[in-house]
Amino acid sequence: MRYIVEGKVTSSDIETADRLSRRRARMIPVLAAIFLAGQAAYFSQDRAERLVDHVKIGAWLIWVLVLLVVLETGGGFIHSKKVRALINDEITRANRQRAYAIGFWTAMGVGIGTYVVAMFEPVTSREAIHLIVTAAIGGALLMFGLLERRAHRDG
Amino acid sequence: MADELRNRLRDLRGERGLTQAALAELVGVSRKTINTVENGVFVPSTLLALKLARALGVPVEEIFSLDQ
Question: For testing the chain B interface, which of A89, A98, A149 should be mutated: the one with the most B CBs within 10 Å?
C-alpha cells in the first residue's frame, strides 16, 4: 500500500495529523492491554461448549479483526486522504514493520511454548490458536504504540 | 568500523527560522517524521532526504553525511 501525500499539505493538515497520531500512540497500548487482560476469561473456565462460549469466541474474533485493521491502516478513516497519508508516513510505516516483526517473534515464542506444554497437558487446537494469535497481536500493538510514542518525544 | 549517519537537519532548520511543523508542511510529511529524523531515531529514505534538501535549499550532502 502506497501512501502519497497528494496536493499541497496545509498547516491545518499537519496539526490534525499530529494530534491524531499522538492520540493513536496513547490509545494503542491501552487497547492492547485491555485485549490481553481480557483473555483470562477464555481459559479460566471449564471447556463446556455452551452458547455463551460461542458468543465469547465470536467476540474475540471481532476484536482480533478490528485490532488488525487498526494496526495495518492506522485508523483515521473519517479524515481526508492527505491527513491519513500524514499519519501513515515513513516513520509510521517503519514502526509498523518493526511491530510486525515483534508480533512474529512473539507468535513463535508462544507457539513453541504451547507445543511444549501440550506434551504434558491437553491443549485444544482452538486454545493454541487463541494463544498464538492473541500474543502476536498484543505484542505487535504494544511495540507499535511504544515506537509511535517515542517518535513524538522531542529530543 | 560501522558507519554512522550525521545530520544537520535541526541546525539548518533553525538557521532558516522554521519550526518542525513548518518544515513538515513544506516537505509534505508529519511533524513526527521531522522530529525523528532530527533526533537520529529514524534514517529517512532517499526520497525524503531529497525533499528535505529541496525544502531547505541545500544539497542533500549538506544535511546528511557519513561519520566514519
Answer: A89
